[in-house]
């Protein structure tokens, strides 16, 4: 599937300007890219989150598609019900057009609170795409740690100080957990790698069954980073192998971008204030732990992936 930038530029914006997300918000960039990648009618469900409160405050909305707000934990359950109703109506001949279905939630609503609804919808085989806009904490409710928060990150519930040096646990490898559900399509990407992201959205929406894309998205408020550095930090996440670009298609793992000159993870850490304490000499062992885990996961991924 080829993404043609000139053709994309001509498309109608289904996620419109004028919303209240922060300037430079990585999730806003993601939403725009996703909706530009979609072909044909689509229904979207979204869990409570920054994008909900910022893009659909009654009576205004930034969405030019059928869009449903859900509780924190049940966006995949809601969209699976919509998809089931659609199949029933189509079987009766009351709907003839092909409609696509997307659920969206942050890492809190995907890794943690919403995992049961997502896992159940995947197991039942509903035809929908779930997108996790993963900014690695509960940003909307005060920057609390989540299952996606990396080791050493400062959050309001894992504060870096004398007692603890930020979060004490490694993040959950949710993409691999979802791949273990044996669904047709699973992937990781970032908004900086826009062509990779949009291609993966289009692939995911063509499979016969559930699909999942985990998207690392920047949040300058929670990451304590400069707005202008948002996309560069996402680029560094890939170039340090902290966030590899890969997909799992019908059980086959494929690497989409093989890093030739792998950068040390400290290059990704340095621009983010949530890791400022890790630059101190006494916390260097934590940086070494993070680097070791990244190296191990990268080698494991390379071993899993088939050659193109």
Walkthrough of the structure:
This protein is of the alpha/beta class and 308 residues long. The chain has twelve helices and eight strands. The chain has an eight-stranded mixed sheet with strand order 2-1-3-4-6-5-7-8, sandwiched between helices. The longest helix has 21 residues.
Please outline the helices and strands.
Elements: H1 5-10, H2 26-37, E1 42-47, H3 50-55, E2 67-70, H4 75-91, E3 100-106, H5 107-112, H6 115-124, E4 129-134, H7 174-179, E5 185-189, H8 194-204, E6 211-216, H9 220-223, H10 230-239, E7 246-249, E8 252-255, H11 266-269, H12 284-304
Parallel strand pairs: 1-2, 1-3, 3-4, 4-6, 5-6
Antiparallel strand pairs: 5-7, 7-8
Helix pairs in contact: 2-8, 4-6
């Amino acid at each position: 599937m080829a993404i043609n930038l000139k053709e994309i530029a001509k498309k109608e914006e289904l996620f419109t300007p004028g919303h209240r997300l922060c300037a430079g918000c990585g999730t806003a960039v993601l939403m725009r890219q996703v909706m530009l990648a979609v072909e044909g009618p689509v229904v979207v469900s979204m869990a409570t989150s920054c994008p909900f409160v910022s893009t659909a405050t009654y009576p205004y909305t930034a969405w030019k598609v059928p869009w449903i707000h859900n509780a924190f934990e049940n966006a995949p359950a809601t969209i699976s019900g919509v998809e089931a109703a659609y199949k029933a109506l189509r079987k009766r001949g009351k709907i003839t057009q092909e409609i696509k279905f997307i659920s969206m939630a942050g890492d809190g609503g995907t890794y943690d609170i919403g995992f049961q609804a997502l896992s159940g919808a995947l197991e039942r085989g509903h035809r929908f795409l779930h997108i996790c806009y993963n900014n690695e904490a509960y940003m909307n409710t005060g920057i609390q740690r989540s299952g996606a928060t990396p080791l050493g990150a400062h959050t309001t519930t894992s504060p870096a100080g004398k007692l603890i040096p930020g979060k004490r646990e490694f993040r959950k490898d949710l993409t691999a957990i979802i791949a273990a559900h044996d669904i047709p399509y699973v992937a990781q990407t970032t908004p900086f790698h826009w062509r990779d992201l949009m291609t993966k959205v289009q692939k995911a929406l063509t499979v016969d069954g559930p699909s999942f894309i985990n998207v690392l998205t920047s949040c300058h408020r929670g990451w304590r980073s400069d707005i202008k550095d948002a996309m560069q930090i996402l680029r560094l996440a890939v170039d340090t192998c902290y966030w590899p670009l890969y997909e799992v298609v019908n059980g086959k793992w494929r690497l989409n971008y093989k890093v030739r000159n792998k950068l040390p993870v400290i290059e990704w850490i340095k621009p983010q204030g949530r890791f400022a304490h890790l630059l101190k000499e006494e916390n260097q062992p934590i940086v070494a732990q993070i680097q070791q885990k990244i190296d191990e996961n990268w080698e494991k991924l390379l071993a899993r992936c088939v050659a193109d």
